Amino acid sequence: MKDTLINYRRSDQVNRFVLLISVFTTFVMGISVAPIMAEQMSPAYNITDGRPWKMTMDDGRVTTLVLFENGKGKMTGGPVELSPKWRATPDGLCLKPGTLLPERCVQLVRSNNGYIGMRAGEQLFKLER
């Protein structure tokens, strides 16, 4: 009887420990996956298909923007060809046009034939196909 009681207590302690480890592992996995899933839902992934977009800046200048899934891209039509880098944000993307140029983040808002890049409530550019 005494051995059975000791085995039961050990078994109960092991079960509690396993439950604690399971809860901890689930929590850690949820935290590490959540930012990845949030970024994958970003509208940026709708424009990074390697196909060209007509990019009209707020001052009327027109360039061509191509963004690739690997975080790189190509901008043509300006005075020089640029090789921008980009990263997704929950509501848009951040684009760094070149080494010496600063990164700029925009909210991407869906339009009839593309997207509008907005920052602080102002339109910076329009992407169309």
Task: Give an overview of the whole structure.
- With 129 residues, the protein is an alpha+beta fold.
- The protein has 1 helix and 8 strands, in the order H-E-E-E-E-E-E-E-E.
- The chain has an 8-stranded antiparallel β-sheet.
- Strand 5 (92-96) and strand 6 (104-111) form a beta hairpin.
- Residues 33-39 have low confidence and may be disordered.
The percentage of residues in β strands lies in: 35-45%
Q: Which bin fits the share of residues in helices?
A: 25-40%
What's the Cα radius of gyration? 25 Å
What order do the strands of the largest sheet run in, or round the barrel if closed? 3-2-1-8-7-6-5-4
Q: What structural class do the secondary elements suggest?
A: alpha+beta
The backbone outline, from C-alpha atoms, is elongated
The description of the largest β-sheet is: 8 strands, antiparallel
Helical stretch count? 1
Q: Please trace the helix and strand order, writing H or E for each element.
A: HEEEEEEEE
Overall mean pLDDT score? 84
Q: Are there runs of 5+ residues with pLDDT below 50, and where?
A: 33-39
Give the total of domains.
2
Please describe the topology of this protein:
Layout lengths: L1 H39 L12 E5 L4 E6 L5 E4 L8 E5 L2 E5 L7 E8 L2 E6 L2 E7 L1
Antiparallel strand pairs: 1-2, 1-8, 2-3, 4-5, 5-6, 6-7, 7-8
Produce a short descriptive summary.
This protein has 129 residues and is α+β, with helices and mostly antiparallel strands.
